[in-house]
Structure formats: C-alpha cells, structure tokens
Input
Amino acid sequence: MAIPFSTTATISPNSDSQYHFHSEQFKETREITLDDRSEAAGNWSDYPVGVLRQLQLRGITPPPFHLEIHGNVPFGAGLSSSASVEVASAIAILAHANATLPLEEIAMLCKLAENDYVHSPCGIMDQFVITAAKAGHALLLDTRSLSYEHIPMNHDGLVNMRIVVCNSMVKHSIADGDYGLRRREVEAGQDVLRAAFPQLRDLADATLDQLEACAAKMTPESYRRCRHIITENARVRKAKNAMVAGDAANLGKLMIAAHASQRDDFECSCEEIDFLVDQAVALEGCLGARMTGGGFGGCTVNLVSQDKADTFAQALAAAYLKRFNIKAETYICEAVDGAMLRNSTKAKESQA
Output
C-alpha cells in the first residue's frame, strides 16, 4: 500500500542545453550535458539521473530541463524513499518529453535505474506500488509476471484499523553489503533447488518439502533464506484472504509471523526493530507488527485500532526512547493513491 508521504518532481524547460537536478532537502545541484554518460556520483542525484539513463536507453531523449525534487519521505527508513524519487522523476521527465509508457514499464525502468546505475540490488515492489497504488487498498504483486490486484483494506473488520508506522531512526542503505549478501544466499539456494527440480522457475514455485530434500546440498544460510521466502509467499496469500474477508485479527497474526521469519530466517532485523515489534504487540489496540523495507533498521508497520492509534504511537515512542535514548517518529497512515501527474502553465509536476 502507498502511505501519505510523497516526493514531488517539478520539471521545466532549461535554456542552457543541460539537464539540471536540484534537491532543496540536500541543498545540492547536479548539472550534466545531454550526451553525458558519467558514472554515479554517490548521492541523491543518482536516482533521477539513473531514470534518465533508462529512458535514453529506450530511445526517449527529453529536451534540456531543470528538475526540482522535494518531499517528506524519510530517507533510509525503509519507506521507499529512493523509489519515490525514481517514480516521480520518471513521470515528470516523460511528460517533459511528451512520451508515455505503461505503468509496468515505468516501474521496471525505475528498478533498473537503481540496479544498474546506483548499483543497489533492489527488487521491483516499491517502484510498482508507488506507480499503481489505489486508495483504501493494498497491492498484491506477482513480481514474475508483473500482474497485480488491488486488495481492499477498508471494509468489515479493517474499516476501523489504521497502519501506524514507527521510524526507528536507525538508517540503512540496501546498496550496502548485507542486503546484497542475502540476495546472493537466496540465489545460491534457488540454484540448488532448480538443479534438483528442473520444473521450478524460481522460489515462488518451490515447496517446503522440496527445500527439505535439498537442505544438505546448500549452506545453512541459504536454507534459512529460502525457507523465509517460501513461507512468506504462503503468508502473503493468507494475508490476501484475510483482507478480502476483512479479518483484522488474522492479518495481524500473519504480520507477527512474518516478522519472526525476517528476524530468524532472513536475519535482516536488528535489536531496535525487534524491540519495537515486541513492544507494539504488547500494547492495547495493536493486532500485528512487523518490519518493513529492506531491513537492518528503518521502520515497523503496526496494525492498530483507530481509537487507540494516538495513544499507541505515544506509548511506543516513549518505550523506545527509554530503552535506546532514540526519539522515534510515528505516523498514523491510511492507504492512498500512487503517483500522479499535475500540469501547470510553466512546469509539469509529478508526485509519488
């Protein structure tokens, strides 16, 4: 689901035959020529420049522009800040070039910008949700086929629930080594499974019985990583059923189980995040809690009764401050629409 934070990219024509990228948040400007193919700069500008590179590879060459990025998505918190910059930039640059692409291709080129230019081994989930989200709904995405469904979160037992996000203020970057290591461990385990069971396309087709049959042929780390993914896929299917039924209690239980798997099998949690999850489920009104994002810090998401959301957020932040002497930020959220284009007379503005 998309939450009510946003990145806005405002684009306007530039008269000096260059592409300008500016962020008010970082107080930085990057200028490149139309034929520039330089490597990444190692800062925020790599995300929109990477998007531009992907558009150029598709034969889309926009005229010179000035792109202004601003927003309120916390960076490094697991709330898709980089994907938000990418999608907003892509939609703005496409509009400036008088070009269009299907939303699936926009999401994919944003993912590839992060993979190939920023050299971050992310998947496509964040970019796709930002592109395709619908208010009041979660998005169920098959990352293999890019088919998707909007699943209602605003009926029956879910109508009076809210998602409370808690930012641990422990920063992470998935371009760093731990996330890449996890991915390599998964791929190594998947290779073992596919060698033993050639009919498997990937882990989405695998069963726990097949994994057990191959356990001795892979490292303990690869075994646990694959077990997390196989069981998480099953939990996602059950979560869809719970949302369709409006069953908040069951959805909350699945969130708790998902975090335990992230913590124990995928091993991408940390002390601060585990504390927030354990503390949350002990507070009145909370039915479920888990980590979100790439792991190793960032945020938790908590399923909380609307009438208890304010007191829950205050109590969770207070407990965290007492334990770690860190002031967590909390946000009470509803599912909102994804990216959109806004036009004005002098500039085009996209929001993601």
The chain has a mean pLDDT of 92.
